[in-house]
Structures are given as C-alpha cells and as structure tokens.
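Aim 2 progress update. The chain analyzed this quarter is reproduced below.
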Amino acid sequence: MHYFISAGEPSGDLHASQLISALRRIDPHASFTFLGGDLMAGAAGCDPVIHYRRMAFMGFSEVIRNWRTIAGNFTRARAALESAGPDALILVDYPSFNLRLARYAKEKLGIPVFYYIAPKVWAWKEWRVKQLRRYTDRILSILPFETDYFAGKGVDVTYVGNPSKEEVDHRLASAGSREEFLASHGLQADKPILAIVPGSRRGEIRCNLPVMDAVARRHPELQPVIAAAPGLDPDLYERYSTIPRIEADTFRLMHFAEAALVTSGTATLECALAGTPQVVCYRSNGSRLAYRIMRRVIKAPFVSLPNLIASHEVIPEMLLHRCSVELVDRELSAILPGMPGRAAQIEGYRLMRSRLGEETAAETAAKTITDFLK
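Predicted structure tokens:
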C-alpha cells in the first residue's frame, strides 16, 4: 500500500519515522510520500516533499511573518497528495496545517485519514473536535485518558501506547553510569545535581531561567546544571544565569539529577519516566490576570502530562504568578532526599507508568492502520 504522512516538526519526524519502519515490517511492499525530516527520509528511503524546516513556525507573530511560505506549503502538499493517490493519509501532530490537509483528503479525494498524536483539544481549542470527528477515520492516541474524552465526543479512537515511554526506557538502558556522565561533562562527583530545564524557546528561557537560577542559589548543597537547547546562542543563557550548561544531553542530566526544575512540556513526562522528582515551572509574564485567563481557556485540570496521565497532582505546577522564587523553592525543598514529598512523587510516577501500559506505540498504530485498510 501507499501511505502519505504529514509531520511538521522535529518530534513528529521522530515518531513518524518509527511508524514508517513499523508499517514496513507489516507491509513489506509499502511505499511512502511524506512531509517531514531526515529521520523519515531514512526510514522511507526517499526525500520529503517538504522538509519540516520550512514548516515549523510557532506562535502568532511567526505565523503572520511567514504566511506566504505556509500558504505555499499547503498548495504543494495538496498537489502531492493528489498526485500520490495514497491508500491512506496519516497525520502526526501539527494540527493547524494537518487538519486542513485532512479536510481536503476526506472531502475532495475520499482518502482514509488517521491521526497519530492528536491535537490536545481536551486542553484548548476544543472546537477542533468537530473537525476530527468529520475528517478523520481513526485517532491513534498516545495518551490513555484521551480515549474516554474522544469517545465521549463521538470520535473513533484507539490508544496505541506512548512512544515517550519506549524512548525513555531505551535511553535508560544505554545511559551508562553516573560517574561516566559526570566525567564527560566535567561535573563534581561529590555534589548531587539539580537539573535546570528552562525550555528550548527564547521566551521560555527569558521568563523561567531567572527564577530557576535564584532558586538554585538557595541550595548550595546542590550542583545546578542547565540543560541548554542545541542551536541557541550561549549569550541568551548568560544574560540570565552563570550556572554551568551542558548541551544535547538533557535526558541523562535529568536521569542522574537528585531533583529538577522543568519548564512545562514533554520534558516533564521524560523526567517523570526517568524517575527524578521535579517541580514544573511556567512563568510567562507572571501576572495574576494572565493566570485567570489561562485557567478559563485551558479546559484540563492540569498542564503537565504526568499529572494528566495519573489523574491527580503528582508534581507541583508553578504557573505564571505562582512561579516565584519563594513558591518554587518551597516545592523543591519538599522533594529533596528525606522529605515526604519525594516518596509521594515517586509513587505517583509508578501509577503514571502503569497507566501508560505496555503497548509499543508505532507497532500498534501500524497494525491498527493496516487492519482498518484491509
């Protein structure tokens, strides 16, 4: 069969490449047309129609500045979809673009549509549920709580497992020893590590790193280390902190740390799967008004994936005006060795892991797609 896959950012490229490999194992004659990156190209054996580097625009202002490129991308993707005539369209995250493509595939071409790693409509932009119900044949969910949500909205959904769990377990098996990690980065062997994970975007770093730096300085017994995002200018970090940085080794830093301060995002799930107690930080502009607006806009009871998966507060979420030095320090102190909050958080991690199940996401998704098409 021929599959058309659309992924518009690096994480989608990773997950889609694993799905391509799984589809090949089930369907040895499978062929692919795709929007994505180098990992997908390696798995599919051909180049992307559009590389995600031309697609990964984030935020309102960036989208406005690049609207001609985005419009051109969609025209090109639509033409490629028509030309390929695939047996199925598989969408990976990237909802603003992919939902438009789903509509075109369904209404104009009559192609079956699968959504792997669905938009987080349970948190915001819930109106997209109508589009998912109308333009997709099956959602392949990677979050267990989504099945009840989507089923309740009349959307066909299958939980396929969580790829982050598989990736983390693989990394844990190949992480090496703490001593090797410390030596490779010139870190002190006699001091516990406090991992500082301020995000990968400039705005996140600007807003969160000053608070994280100030909290770290209250704990001289710990060795703070910043997880620096690849490709960002070192000057950006140096404006807000003189704490040592390591680049392109965030997971091992979190794994070998005693505790972590993590900006909300996928890193919170990876940190939890690694078993390291953490405090979630998300400051933005820090105003109470912004916090009230956010709580009205976001429908979910939590913003961090570990809490959403466990269905209760496993890790403290210090959001906006609550992301202050005093409050973050209080929560960090409660999860350090010997404190009761540490044991409670680790027990919450165990519950979260059990709810993610043992399914292999890419394999289960590939089997679900091929069974449907048969």
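The longest helix spans residues 67-84. Residues 182 and 189 are 7 Å apart (CA to CA). These observations will guide the mutagenesis experiments scheduled for the next reporting period.
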